[in-house]
């Protein structure tokens, strides 16, 4: 009885649930501490203490009807003002609260953007490997997702293939930096070339092609790496940001959209995005969390914890002979499967109680993803198991 569009989504969800259930089963048999679960991108680092203090203070001291009431669909003006101010300070921009719409995390930000710009049948392009939810988001608005094959040398976007695929039907391009699942940060050179290609196609089409920068991992960059500010490269850019990882608040569902004045027809685009939030039933982002964000706008979770995890896991795995991309940001490690069928490799790793996600879940078979947002102790304890796994494949 369910809608046609939902059938594929339900089938895919069963695969994710099966993985989740299998992890739970292993933990029940062997004990939580003896299962090395690198499958989920759920932050293990606590939110900063200031977040908790802000929640208490807001509940104690602010007017309850304001804290819990309806508001403008775009969100509290004071919160959007704080977001704009923080961006201006960091990226030398001149946004105002009008350029910011508070969202229910990055997932809703992407949906609001796509609902705002996409007509049925229009194409959205993204780059493998990619966060598979993009497919569902694009289908929500009857668009078509085209996936550019991976550049397995660098895992920067494959721009030669991209240039070939852009067409008069292309309406938007989604990028994600720092990147899930590879941990790569898109370089200045990548963004310059990518946007040059897009500008050329825009001219050919005579209509805008929007660049959507999905940035839930912006705050997680290592070795002092700089994550370039994408609107600096291309005028028709939307930014979808989230505090899910930056402040370890994924369950609270809070983020924002940036729509710069440089975006073509920006007044109408901002108006449409504001209405999209309402008609999609989100109405507005959670009010308490908006007020928390306003106070904690420049806070971050303990990024050094993830960096330390990254160092241990990357050094350990490469030491055993596994081929890995060194993550520059986010909290994922992308590893080449020692056999062509990475699903078989993922199955074999379970013998040693190691749980990973196959690359085909990101449209990039032959690789696996390890989420290292786990305790440092888990990483240390997993080393012996990875050593045995390496031995099994004669590395
Ligand atoms: N985009 C990417 C690449 C992600 O990895 C995630 C979550 O893991 C999201 C978007 C959605 O994030 P949020 O929790 O802010 O909706």
What is the CATH superfamily label of the largest domain? Type I PLP-dependent aspartate aminotransferase-like (Major domain)
Q: What proportion of the residues is helical, as a percent range? A: 40-55%
At the first level of CATH, what is the class of the largest domain? Alpha Beta
Biggest sheet record: 7 strands, mixed
- Beta strands, count: 13
Strand percentage, roughly? 5-15%
- SSE-based structural type: alpha/beta
Shape: globular
Numbering strands along the chain, what is their spatial order in the largest sheet? 2-8-7-6-5-3-4
Number of helices: 13
Task: Tag the structure with descriptive keywords.
globular, alpha/beta, seven-stranded mixed β-sheet, Aspartate Aminotransferase, domain 1, four-stranded antiparallel β-sheet, binds pyridoxal-5'-phosphate, 2 domains, 13 helices, Aspartate Aminotransferase, domain 2, 395 residues, 14% strand, single chain
Overview in brief:
The protein is built from 13 helices and 13 strands.
Description:
The protein has 2 domains: 4-47 and 302-392, Alpha-Beta Complex (Aspartate Aminotransferase, domain 1), CATH 3.90.1150; 49-296, Aspartate Aminotransferase, domain 2, CATH 3.40.640. It has 13 helices and 13 strands. The chain has helices spanning 4-30, 49-61, 64-68, 77-91, 105-117, 133-140, 159-165, 188-205, 266-279, 287-296, 303-319, 342-350, 376-392, and strands spanning 36-37, 100-103, 123-127, 144-148, 170-176, 210-215, 237-242, 255-258, 324-325, 332-336, 354-355, 357-358, 367-371. α2 packs across α10 and α5 (105-117) packs parallel to α6 (133-140). The structure holds pyridoxal-5'-phosphate.
């Amino acid at each position: 009885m369910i809608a046609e569009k939902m059938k594929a989504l339900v089938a895919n969800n069963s695969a994710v649930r099966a993985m989740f259930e299998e992890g739970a089963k292993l933990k029940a048999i062997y004990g939580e501490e003896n299962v090395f679960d690198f499958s989920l991108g759920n932050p293990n680092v606590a939110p900063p203490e200031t977040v908790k203090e802000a929640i208490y203070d807001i509940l104690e001291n602010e007017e309850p009807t304001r804290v819990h009431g309806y508001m403008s669909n775009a969100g509290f003006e004071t919160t959007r003002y704080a977001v704009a101010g923080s961006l201006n300070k960091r990226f030398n921009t001149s946004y105002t609260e009008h350029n910011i719409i508070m969202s229910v995390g990055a997932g809703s930000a992407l949906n609001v953007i796509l609902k705002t710009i996409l007509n049925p049948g229009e194409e959205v392009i993204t780059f493998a490997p990619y966060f598979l939810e993009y497919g569902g988001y694009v289908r929500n608005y009857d668009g078509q997702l085209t996936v550019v094959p991976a550049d397995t040398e660098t895992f920067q976007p494959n721009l030669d293939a991209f240039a070939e695929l852009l067409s008069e039907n292309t309406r938007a391009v989604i990028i994600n930096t720092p990147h899930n699942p590879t941990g790569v940060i898109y370089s200045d050179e990548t963004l310059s070339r990518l946007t040059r290609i897009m500008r050329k196609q825009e001219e050919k089409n005579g209509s805008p092609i929007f660049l959507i920068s999905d940035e839930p991992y912006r705050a997680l960059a290592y070795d002092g790496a700089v994550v370039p500010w994408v609107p600096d490269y291309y005028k028709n850019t939307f930014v979808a940001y989230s505090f899910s990882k930056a402040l370890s608040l994924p369950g609270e569902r809070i983020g924002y959209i940036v729509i710069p004045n440089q975006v073509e027809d920006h007044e109408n685009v901002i108006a449409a995005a504001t209405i999209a939030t309402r008609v999609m039933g989100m109405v507005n982002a959670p009010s308490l969390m908006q007020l928390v964000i306003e106070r904690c706008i420049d806070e971050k979770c303990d990024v050094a914890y993830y960096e330390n995890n990254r160092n241990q896991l990357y050094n350990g795995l490469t030491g055993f002979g596994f081929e890995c991309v060194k993550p520059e940001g986010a909290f994922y490690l992308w590893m080449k499967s020692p056999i062509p069928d990475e699903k078989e490799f993922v199955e074999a790793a379970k013998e040693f109680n190691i749980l990973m996600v196959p690359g085909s879940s990101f449209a990039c078979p032959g690789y696996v993803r390890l989420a290292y947002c786990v305790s440092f102790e888990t990483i240390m304890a997993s080393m012996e198991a990875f050593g045995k796994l390496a031995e099994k494949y004669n590395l």
